[in-house]
Amino acid sequence: MLETDTIKGREKDLAWKREMAGCKEIKKRHANLSGMDIEPLYTMYDAPQEEAQEKLGFPGEFPFTRGVHRNMYRGRMWTMRQFSGFADPEETNRRYHYLLKHGQTGLSVAFDMPTLMGIDSDDPLSLGEVGKCGVAVDSLEDMEVIFRGIPLDRISTSMTINGNAAILLAMYIAVAEKQGVTQDKLRGTLQNDILKEYIAQKEWLFPPEPSLRLIVDTIEYGSRHMPQWNTVSISGYHIREAGSTALQELAFTLADGFAYVEAAMERGLDVDDFAPRLSFFFNCHNNFFEEIAKFRAARRIWARHMKERFGAKNPKSWMMRFHTQTAGCTLTAQQPYNNVVRVAYQALAAVMGGTQSLHTNSMDETLALPTEEAVKISLRTQQVLAHETGVTDTVDPLGGSYYVEALTDRMEEECEKYFQRIEREGGVVEGIKSGFFVREISRAAYDYQKKIDEKEAIIVGVNDYVEEEDQSAISTLKIDEEVERKVVEKLKKLKAGRDAGAVEEKLNAVRQAALAGDNLMYSMLDAVKVYVTQGEIVKLLKDVYGTYREPLIF
């Protein structure tokens, strides 16, 4: 294009937008959930073509803006991984077989609150919570039951556990060994992202420094023994659920990822030995194009920093592979069938953004754990998307869209500004201690709630299109109170029947490894094999590391 033609084109573009500014509009301001103003029209001048090809690249090539695989879903569909686990191990095993029968292609374990907090089911603090929000797992015996009849060399498993993730991973390895499956054959993901716990989800067990050291233990162990296992799933999902914007989710998640890379390299690990097995976990909220741009920007930023900042040479170290879950915080108790629609749009955005794995929430999850019927509908949502809509026929179908490319660039630019702010805080760990992340998220959550209260943001069925008498009540899953009694009784029987000498010996080995700063995975694996419980190991480590109280933020 000649320079004179470019100038004329820009002038025409600006003239049209000036005229557009005088048109009547429904809303006073058009902005996405990150607060970025949205223009009424995007043209080639909003996404400069001079740099476009370099920023876009090709799928499967640096900087991976268009996807991490060359042919994406034409070659392999995303993993359909429904988050599941409730009551006791027997019930969870039954639900897993149900889901696999109906076409699920990966398992994802939800643990109950006592397990997440490193407390055994027979602890007084567990009273009333056993099996309620996930499955109760105290020992290797429970893990054996959960995966009974499920060949671990032929299924991919994700475990949503953090503070005591290394212990649960050790149990999973031990179950596999009992099945005759070696560690190098295991495929799956351990969430194991402790930094986001301090930032958003609040399920930490120890202070940040020893917690981070424990994460590096699993990274180191995985790089040596588990080549197909993702030892950390760096998670923005919970940051978003806590009230962050899409931009904050992007920036804080990537900052956490960089912190793990730095910590592992400080341990002496070569970046290319572990980075290919780092994965990510993102939320997919309601603003369709904002979410797609977030995913595309995330891949590009990660690739650039891994290559230029950390010196990674293996292209697999540059690739950001991620799981997506539709946004639980967008589900409403009012008119719950609307949630089916919300989840479908969010799933579409995740696929258009190039996710490798997807969980679609069930319509009743705002009320309780999902029923079998609800979880089947959410799985069918993915299957319809995969096989009936045609969105998998071409790679990155929105690539080149003036709007999407301009928004992707903007997300990247604003994300880099956040990195600079985090650096001024002294890094992620210091930002946690100073309350920086909590303040930022709290402010964003307040602003969003204010928009809802003032009807600047419309939530269908909540602050508009409200029905005086809700006719869409649905049945929910209820966990029988008998479950807790059975779990506790079973645990007490296990503890009474163990080899007490072996338990004491293996616990002492864990203590010595913790005091010496050795990699804890090896001693933990030995301990769980003699049915030491996760609560016993956590209690011991709290004696060594201490506990943590976050700063008060007002």
Describe the model.
With 554 residues, the chain is α/β, with parallel strands linked by helices. Helices cover 51% and strands 7% of the residues. The chain has 23 helices and 9 strands. It has helices at 3-20, 52-56, 72-75, 89-101, 113-116, 140-146, 165-179, 195-201, 208-225, 237-241, 246-266, 271-274, 288-309, 315-318, 338-352, 372-388, 402-424, 428-434, 436-453, 482-497, 500-516, 520-529, 534-545; strands at residues 79-84, 106-110, 156-160, 187-190, 229-230, 232-235, 278-284, 322-326, 357-359. Strands 5-4-3-2-1-9-8-7-6 form a 9-stranded parallel sheet. Helix 21 (500-516) runs parallel beside helix 23 (534-545). It is globular, with a radius of gyration of 24 Å. The termini are far apart.
SSE topology:
Blueprint: H1 3-20, H2 52-56, H3 72-75, E1 79-84, H4 89-101, E2 106-110, H5 113-116, H6 140-146, E3 156-160, H7 165-179, E4 187-190, H8 195-201, H9 208-225, E5 229-230, E6 232-235, H10 237-241, H11 246-266, H12 271-274, E7 278-284, H13 288-309, H14 315-318, E8 322-326, H15 338-352, E9 357-359, H16 372-388, H17 402-424, H18 428-434, H19 436-453, H20 482-497, H21 500-516, H22 520-529, H23 534-545
Parallel strand pairs: 1-2, 1-9, 2-3, 3-4, 4-5, 6-7, 7-8, 8-9
